[in-house]
Amino acid sequence: MKYANWMKNVGEGFIGEMLRAAQNPEMISFAGGLPALELFPTHELQDAFQKVFEEQGSSALQYSQTAGYPKLREWLASQHQRNERLARIQEVIITTGSQQGLSLLAQTFLDPGDTVFVETPTYLGAIQAFEGFRANFQMIPCDVEGIIPSELERALQHTTPKFLYLIPNYQNPTGKVMGLERRKELLKVAQKYDLLLVEDNPYGELRYEGESIPHLVELGEHVVYLGTFSKVLAPGLRVGYVLADEDIIMHLEQTKEGVDLHSNNLTQRAVYQYLKQDLLPDHIQKLRQVYDVRRKAMVEAIHTYLGEQIEMVVPSGGLFLWGKLSGVQDSFDYVEDMIKQNVLYVPGALFYADGRVSNEMRLNYSCSTPEVIEEGIKRLAKGLRK
Amino acid sequence: MKYANWMKNVGEGFIGEMLRAAQNPEMISFAGGLPALELFPTHELQDAFQKVFEEQGSSALQYSQTAGYPKLREWLASQHQRNERLARIQEVIITTGSQQGLSLLAQTFLDPGDTVFVETPTYLGAIQAFEGFRANFQMIPCDVEGIIPSELERALQHTTPKFLYLIPNYQNPTGKVMGLERRKELLKVAQKYDLLLVEDNPYGELRYEGESIPHLVELGEHVVYLGTFSKVLAPGLRVGYVLADEDIIMHLEQTKEGVDLHSNNLTQRAVYQYLKQDLLPDHIQKLRQVYDVRRKAMVEAIHTYLGEQIEMVVPSGGLFLWGKLSGVQDSFDYVEDMIKQNVLYVPGALFYADGRVSNEMRLNYSCSTPEVIEEGIKRLAKGLRK
After folding, report:
1. Distance between CA atoms of residues A342 and A26, nearest Å
2. Cα nearest neighbour of B110 on chain A
3. Model confidence at B13, in pLDDT bands (50, 70, 90)?
4. Which has more confidence, B17 or A176?
5. Residues 44-73 of A with CB under 8 A from B
6. What pLDDT shows up at residue B7?
7. How many CB pairs under 8 A join A and B?
8. In this predicted complex, what is the ipTM?
9. The pLDDT of residue B335
10. Record: contact A20-B65, CB cut-off 8 A
């Protein structure tokens, strides 16, 4: 019995390990990307499930279409502009969370050894999804707005990747935002080289400062957009989607048919039931207010307890704060000490596709109250003194 | 922009196409593998979801463990014997339907070009799942009990496959059952050649005649067992599982982390809530009674309206009847005529991994009443006369 070769390259399932460790009630976890459980619109979702059972009954429990529940797809299409028209239902496929969108894209596009361009650093779940299809990674240099177009162009002169994966809004892990002009420059380079862009946008609605910026998929061609309800509604429902050209969606559908036939039918209907009551905008306002307070609490606690020990990027949205440790070479070295202190973070190395040594760490502030955040940062400071 | 090479080998998404065509209300579909919607325990499931919302609230909507909801995994382990002990929770992973189990196994075990042994014919969804990971297929000759051990041994002398995929109970598409002695012979060959067996058992509980036979996973080593609630509860919930050695489960978990992080948390808890009330055994009894009536109605209608035109295998369980058309070379030739007659079946060729011409067809009897079955078989007879 022999596993596939790529399995050797997979790490130890760090996301899963963190999810498990985070279940220790004593632990303060800044490691996950967990939205705040106490803010979930649980009653409204309960009502939505009830209503689907009452009005649609057994049909919500039957097999359904691979591309997803049509009314949910229609609703999602109606939320997106594409070249001065609304998106069409044929341009949307429902996925089992955004993570499945990443995996389906990899399976649909990658032959073994194909190259994928990624940001430096990038979302570790994307690295995992693409590794599962034997991707080669090339990390494109980034500045404060993300991918540097001239660096992208230089890379494209030597390598033809299957796509460039990026998170323009409140990037994971760095929290950076790509401005409008940068987006346009990037699209120009992409068009010149016929480069497919994969735009992942789980955090775009969680904006605490500044104005909303149009998505790449709304500004140009050849963009695959990934959306999700995990951060604005509830991640346990596993409802995400991909918006892209119809031909790409048809191919993703073909892939998904072999992968899981379709996503949970009942849940898709319940999410649509929730959405059609137009409850989401107010809910997002509430999330913004609460997360903003937590963001500020973390920034303040870091100033107070870590001071010069950490150089941080203060995010204007999203779930994460990215910090660089002073006088430390490898942030991995402190993981064990921190677990003893009952505090978790994600070491920066995990976000680099080449696994380089990093003195950075990603801290999540969305799922802890200001008091807990303060206590957690105190523990971090204590752990760092060891 | 270029898709992965394997995409060319994928058919036109026949399962998805059938699911779509089956939504025409005039259509009588014998094509799907749909369980009967009117038999779903919808009220009990509604209560289960309500209870989870009331008792567990938001925690049922949060991210959760990749391997699945621990109480559901425990319950499933308790249902299976392994070498005279009960299975352990570490030997179970929850999947988004059994289809995901197939896809995860392929991703975890297959390098491009690796060979998979399959029955002749086999489940077309398994062909799709394995094609997505560039499998080579070798079809092992079968008799009335499925895989012929001597033929398997002969094949193993020339080729080392990653695994043999088979459906011992009420095989899809043929309805065949592998007897106890045959299972033991098969395990002996597998052990001799260190061959991994993938035992898919979606229909085992739907038994209308004969006695229950122990699963391969209960009889020997190196067996990966796939189970699902799609046929005994409701497929739209997408809850399946894999039972295997702990090391295999850990690898599947690693793969699943990149693929969709975890399956729907709320739904797993609701299914467990349903199961722990011990409602399933009575529900399965009801399914058996109703499906048995439908099975007999189809057999009788075929005798009445098709007579010598079709040679059928009368199944003793499951959802399907397998028929061979007399005086016909390719059952694909009639698909268009049948759609005009508003009746659907699946042409036999789709179940052969080599895509050979076939004069066979698979007919599903579980999701139509006896009256509809009679009408559908009349339409089939009419279509065949064209």
Report:
1. 6
2. A4
3. low
4. A176
5. 45-46, 49-50, 53-54, 57-67
6. 86
7. 242
8. 0.95
9. 86
10. yes
- Contact with chain A for residue B355, Cβ under 8 A: no
| Enclosing domain of residue B167 | 42-276
Q: In A, residues 68-97, which contact B (CB 8 Å cutoff)?
A: 95-97
We report the CATH number of the domain holding residue B305 as 3.90.1150.10
Instruction: Please tell me whether residues A137 and A248 are part of one structural domain.
Output: yes
| Listed residue (A68, A76, A366, A75) closest to B62, CA to CA | A366
Would you place residue B336 in the very low, low, confident or very high pLDDT band (cuts 50, 70, 90)?
confident
Same domain, A250 and A381: no
Yes or no: say if B7 and A108 are a contact pair by the CB < 8 Å rule.
Answer: yes
Chain A residues touching B33 at Cβ < 8 A: 63
In this model, does residue B171 exceed pLDDT 90? yes
With CB atoms and an 8 Å threshold, state whether A162 touches B2. Answer: yes
In a shared domain, residues A225 and A173: yes
3-state DSSP assignment of residue B82: strand
| Nearest Cα to Cα of residue A196 among A144, A254, A242, A228 | A242
Q: What is the pLDDT of residues B212-231, one digit of tens each?
A: 999 999 999 899 999 999 99
Closest Cβ–Cβ partner in A13, A114, A129 for B254: A13
Chain B, 125 to 154: residues with Cβ < 8 Å from chain A are 125, 128-129, 131-132
What pLDDT is stored for residue A100 in this prediction?
A: 98
Say yes or no to pLDDT of B384 above 90. Answer: no
**Where is the domain boundary, B231, B261, B276?**
B276
3-class SS of residue A166: strand
What is the tally of structural domains in chain B?
Answer: 2
Torsion of the alpha carbons at A275, A278, A280 and A286, rounded to the nearest 10: -160
Average pLDDT over residues B194-200: 98
**Residue B288 tokens, joined:** 């058996």
Domain with A145 in it: what CATH number? 3.40.640.10
pLDDT in tens, B274-291: 999 999 999 999 999 999
A307 and A247 part of one domain: no
| Cβ B217 vs Cβ B168: under 8 Å | no
